[in-house]
Write a structure and sequence with these properties.
The N and C termini lie far apart (48 Å). This protein is mainly α. It has one domain. Helix content is 72%, strand content 0%. It is globular and about 50 Å long.
Length: 200
């Protein structure tokens, strides 16, 4: 992976991997309704959970997380190129939220973001989880917890590593996560957002 074409190919391959929808595949395997027809309409673990099948939801969550984790760990192992690691992380998220195979209509990227963060630095990933748990238990809003955790990790990533490429990648990831959660943000402001354990 020492040549530019090889690096571009890896990033493109990561995007294509990220474009595979765990939610849609798992739902078909378990003979569940299409997650795009439920709740928010986004193919993700939350909508799979709305079917009542917790095992399918956990498998979906794991698949989405691994789409971000595995490519980042692989490129980090194969090369010490910080820009390539950063680009790989962003490509994984981009594939998930704008998948080539599903008319560029994907999930909101929370689990994949966590996978990418764990790949960047597992301690940062643990911090993300801790923040999410704290905010989710305190306010009972999963979306709010994810937005707070991702934002704080963006800030922490700079002071933690002083790696400008990691910070840039996290900045773009945070921007896209907020963009995909814009309806949740509106609902939060209006007081209409569904709380954990409840569904609309």
């Amino acid at each position: 992976m020492d040549t530019l074409p090889a690096q571009i190919l890896f990033v493109v391959g990561t995007y294509l991997l990220g474009s595979i929808s765990s939610a849609i595949i798992v739902s078909k395997a378990f003979s569940l309704p299409d997650p795009r027809d439920l709740g928010s309409g986004n193919p993700g673990a939350t909508n799979v959970l709305r079917t009542g099948n917790k095992i399918a939801a956990v498998i979906t969550l794991t698949g989405d997380l691994l789409k971000g984790l595995i490519p980042v760990l692989a490129v980090d192992f194969l090369t010490a190129s910080a820009p390539l690691v950063a680009a790989t992380g962003f490509a994984a998220l981009l594939g998930h939220i704008y998948p080539l195979y599903y008319s560029f209509k994907g999930g909101k990227g929370v689990a994949t973001t966590l996978g990418v963060v764990l790949g960047f630095d597992w301690l940062l990933g643990v911090v993300w989880i801790a923040i999410w748990l704290f905010i989710a238990l305190l306010f009972r809003y999963s979306s709010f917890a994810a937005l707070v955790a991702t934002t704080l990790i963006l800030i922490t990533s700079w002071f933690w590593s002083k790696n400008i490429w990691l910070f840039i990648s996290m900045a773009f990831i945070t921007l896209f996560v907020f963009w995909k959660h814009r309806s949740n943000i509106q609902n939060l402001l209006k007081g209409n957002e569904s709380k954990l354990g409840k569904s609309k």
